Amino acid sequence: MQGFFQQFLRLYRPLTNKLNELLAEFGLSYSLWQVIFYIKNMGPSQLSSISAYFYIERPSVTRVVQQLEEKGLVEHVPGQDKRQKSIQLTEHGVAIYHACREKISELEHSMLADIPDETLQTAFDLFPEIRQNLIEKEE
């Protein structure tokens, strides 16, 4: 199916822009939100885990985490190995997560309201499969 990725990219950019507008109210961007979302759902995490999950370079994750620390949303916690520190959300970070999650959920519901559940489930299942195929082809 030619043009599949073009269709995806035509959705991705306006969606990211909309999310950045929504998150600006909280002093965040989508890239900062991704790390908050990851830590909230995965628990205290090492930078290498975040980097691997999002398939981005560790220095980029380091910069994002530094910004989140400056905003008081994350903090370093000692890990089992003293050389490796983990990042976790602060109480303020958890509160911001919930406020943002509520706004993002409202956006999701409004954007997806008229799409049948079966179609949504197909799309929901499809994207992880495409990602896995892409990763396997690179290895």
TrEMBL record:
Residues 1-132 form the HTH marR-type domain. Gene3D superfamilies: Winged helix-like DNA-binding domain superfamily/Winged helix DNA-binding domain. SMART domains: HTH_MARR. It comes from the Bacteria. Keywords: DNA-binding, Transcription, Transcription regulation. The keyword Transmembrane helix does not apply. InterPro entries: HTH_MarR-typ (IPR000835), WH-like_DNA-bd_sf (IPR036388), WH_DNA-bd_sf (IPR036390). This is MarR family winged helix-turn-helix transcriptional regulator. It comes from Lentibacillus kimchii.
